[in-house]
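DM from R.C. (forwarded with permission)

"hey, sorry to bug you on a friday — could you get me a structure for this? deadline for the figure draft is monday and I only need the backbone to look sensible"
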Amino acid sequence: MAIPKQISFVTFDVYGTLIDWETGAYEAFKKEAERDGFTIERDELIPLFHEIQQQIEAGSYELYAEVLRRTAVQIAKRLGWPLEPSRSGFLPDSVQRWLPFRETNSTLTKIAKKKKIGLISNIDDKLLGQTRRHMPLDFDLVVTAQQVRSYKPDPAHFVECERRIGTKRGWVHVAASYYHDVEPCLKRKIPVVWVNRAGQVLEQGQKKPDAEVKNLREAAKVVGVA
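My reply, with the result:
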């Protein structure tokens, strides 16, 4: 697929794409662990955060708040931090403090003036509502894991999004996660812009996205908004 010349609808993944969830999660873990005099290193935490979430989300569906609680408990075990499971709510409670990347709101505002915009996210409606307070825009479409009772990379989000839009014509998806978003879009032939902030290198056999950028400002140019 190629990026269409006439783009009418741009959807975005939220966490990692619009919201700096790695910093938000790290700060939450750091603060809670300090209560026990335990030190957590960001470089050790973040890979575990992604790995364990993916494993939990691959099972039967449960609300994302519960995914985060289970993630906190399993990470603590892996790190040797004696966290009582009853305290694991610190992680979903921290979502309301996960902040947008610096360019997020200004870029979304520019795009929204020329295109319809939507959110496609692996989260529940309540937590997304907390996040949207940091992004004071009107979105034309919102699809969450709670609504489709499934987690990306399962295609249910994208199937539902196509159903609501009514077509794939003129639709482009923008996302930071190759695993959760780029691969399923490529499989469903949905044009996708990969926001590769970390400079991830594709492994042999992984297909290239339709476009690859370093940040949202570059993504805006790809979808025709300077």
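R.C.: lifesaver. The radius of gyration is 17 Å.
me: no worries. The first helix runs from residue 21 to 34.
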